[in-house]
From TrEMBL:
Catalytic activity, EC: 2.7.1.25
Protein name: Adenylyl-sulfate kinase
Name of encoding gene: cysC
PANTHER family: SULFATE ADENYLYLTRANSFERASE
Source organism: Luteolibacter yonseiensis
Amino-acid positions noted as binding ATP in the UniProt annotation, renumbered to this chain: 32-39
Chemical reaction(s) catalysed: adenosine 5'-phosphosulfate + ATP = 3'-phosphoadenylyl sulfate + ADP + H(+)
InterPro entries for this protein: APS (IPR002891), APS_kinase_dom (IPR059117), P-loop_NTPase (IPR027417), Sulf_AdTrans/APS_kinase (IPR050512)
NCBIfam families named among the record's database cross-references: apsK, PRK03846.1
Length: 201
């Protein structure tokens, strides 16, 4: 460790990047059960922002598990490491002024605290709320049927715990709102946070 000397002062500042992009970076972290609608809402919101000329990206938990996090499973330790890595990547992106969506189950307070510790005020925490029963009915990926047959260990909401967030910045109830309404509500909530510091010259 003592032989590592990070030299952050050589980098351009975050505000230089944000001025270039004409926006401010934020990490919009969507947590919730599998099938609650995290990826769907992140994609819908990203598409609208992109059309508005915003620079965005999505860090999707499932996608990252095919690459960066492919060596991780679903034990408590691996879920913690999964969230730590996603948070660190999100931290790099937000430091470049990028509007960064994270869609990851993030089932426990401990995991969200870890993300908060690394991202601080850049984190905008969204609870994508849908009951286990509703997600089981949707069963987009067939995982609930597998879990019911006992084929998935540590399945979130079944034998893997899910603690709803205590104090999220926003709750989107996908049993009550449509995809479009949920995305719109999210975009309204972050509108003031992503607008530029000052007009571009
Ligand atoms: N209001 C809503 N918001 C988001 N998804 C919804 C909503 N209503 C129904 N759905 C459906 O729920 C499913 C959510 O799947 P997905 O976004 O992949 O979940 P997650 O990423 O949370 O695992 C999709 O099939 C989507 O069409
Ligand atoms: Mg998803």
């Amino acid at each position: 460790m003592s032989n590592i000397h990070p030299e952050f002062h050589r980098f351009l500042h975050r505000q230089d990047k944000e001025n270039l992009l004409g926006q401010r970076g934020i990490v919009v972290w969507l947590c919730g059960l599998s099938g609650s609608g995290k990826s769907t809402i992140a994609n819908a919101a990203e598409r609208v922002l992109h059309q508005q000329g915003r620079f965005t990206t999505i860090l999707d938990g499932d996608n990252l598990r095919t690459g960066l996090n492919s060596n991780l499973g679903f034990s408590d330790d691996d879920r913690l490491e999964n969230i730590r890595r996603i948070s660190e990547v999100a931290k790099v992106f937000v430091s470049q002024g990028i509007i960064t969506f994270v869609s990851a189950i993030t089932p426990r307070g401990e995991l969200r605290d870890l993300a908060r510790g690394l991202l601080g005020n850049d984190l905008f925490e969204v609870y994508v709320k849908a009951s286990y029963e509703a997600c089981e009915q949707r069963d987009v990926k067939g995982l609930y049927a597998k879990a019911a047959r006992g084929e998935i260990a540590h399945f979130t909401g079944k034998d893997g715990s899910f603690e709803p967030p205590n104090n999220p910045d926003l709750v989107l109830d996908t049993e009550k709102s449509s995809i479009e309404d949920a995305a719109f509500e999210l975009l309204e909530a972050i509108r003031g946070k992503i607008s530029a510091h000052r007009p571009l010259v």
